[in-house]
Design goal:
The structure is a single chain. This protein has one domain. The chain is flat, with a radius of gyration of 19 Å. It has seven helices and no strands. By secondary structure, the chain is an all-alpha fold.
Length: 179
């Protein structure tokens, strides 16, 4: 005969396993993207490192709670445009891989990151998002953008990251000020 404590323990275990399975579904998207970025940029070690960090953060925050899952989704959507733009720039302008910090390539990365960050900031301001969920979404978006911009070098990654963060912060401040 099974007592109540065993039933409760089994139910809690099944619940946590279901949450983990739901969180791990992010791997279906992130693993192929990381592999594609590694093959496209030729920076396999860097892409693998950023990809593992991004996947770990995404799984953890998706598993943690529903707000974390929404933050990860918004962060991945916001980081998607800079990711794709970084891959295209690395293919079209291979000279950007060694460009200095103050260059046209960095300015383009910055210009692409700002609207994506602004979209993220508006999404965060629209809901009743806490500072933690805003930081989670911003961190995920910076990691996703870094995955695509790793072929551009440090300057490209820095430009996309700064653009995302400036766009998100400014859009959040403006949206909350107009409420």
């Amino acid at each position: 005969m099974v007592n109540r404590e065993q039933l409760r323990h089994g139910g809690l275990r099944a619940y946590e396993l279901g949450r983990l399975r739901s969180a791990v579904r992010a791997a279906w998207l992130l693993v192929p993207v990381a592999v594609f970025c590694a093959l496209e940029t030729g920076a396999g070690e860097s892409c693998a490192c950023i990809g593992v960090l991004l996947l770990s953060a995404a799984v953890f925050f998706r598993w943690r709670n529903r707000q974390g899952a929404e933050s990860v989704r918004n962060g991945l959507l916001a980081g998607g445009l800079p990711l794709l733009a970084g891959l295209v720039m690395a293919r079209v302008a291979p000279s950007c891989s060694g460009a200095p910090l103050w260059s046209l390539c960095t300015a383009v990365s910055l210009a692409i990151g700002i609207p994506s960050g602004a979209w993220l900031g508006l999404r965060a301001a629209r809901g009743a998002a806490s500072a933690t969920s805003w930081l989670t979404a911003a961190g995920i978006s910076v990691l996703a953008a870094s995955l695509g911009c790793v072929g551009l070098g440090v300057a490209g990654v820095a430009g996309a990251a700064i653009g995302l963060l400036v766009g998100a912060a400014s859009a959040t401040v403006v949206a909350r000020a107009t409420e």
